[in-house]
Amino acid sequence: MASKQLNIALAVFAIVLPAVAMATEFTVGNDSGWTINFDYQAWAKDKVFWVGDKLVFKYSAGRHNVFKVNGTAFANCTIPSPNEGLTSGNDVITLSTPGRKWYICGVRDHCASYGQKLVITVLDESSSPSPAPSTPIPSTPGSANEVEAPSNPMAPAPSSAYWISVSGYQLLMAAMVAVAFLLV
Fold it and tell me: Are 2 and 31 in contact (CB under 8 A)?
């Protein structure tokens, strides 16, 4: 009976752990954190964001904040209602859905005058790498088709190392389950 429970536990573990283990935590701005006069577009350019990954906005509480906005508010640096902002100085946002995501600082003119804003595209974990379109998909910020438009058509496809690590992990889990069945 105990071995059957062990097998079930291993099977559940093998299914659930890859999603958790493969999530990446990105500190926005790296060591600079969330601040003014930083090129967040350049920071995000070579990164691939997946559903389940986390963005960590680090800053001195009271000096900055973080607002999740839509494409129009991002382009115009329109600050939402203050109660929608994150203000802890160590704000963690889990990327739970695919598509474009926009973030701005709502303190004074940090967004408009100092470029404190970030736009990324989050990929679904079931997405397979595809070549960048030869012509960018037109999109008006805030429009219905904004999810399909890549924020950076030159963003790299996930590296083969990612897929090797996933398949290697799955191979390890399959071996563990097989050994568990042999022990029964």
Answer: no
Distances (CA, A) of 146 to 19, 99, 131: 26, 8, 19
CB 30 within 8 A of CB 38: no
User: Could you report the per-residue pLDDT of 28-61, keeping only the tens digit for each?
Assistant: 999 999 999 999 999 999 999 999 999 999 999 9
Q: Rounded to an integer, what distance in angstroms lies between the CA atom of residue 49 and that of residue 125?
A: 10
Residue for token digits 């595809």?
130
The residue type at 31: D
What is the pTM for the complete model shown? Answer: 0.63
Provide the token pair at 110.
């940090």
- What is each CA distance from 6 to 119, 182, 184, in whole angstroms? 44, 12, 10
Dihedrals φ, ψ of 100, to 5°? -75, 140
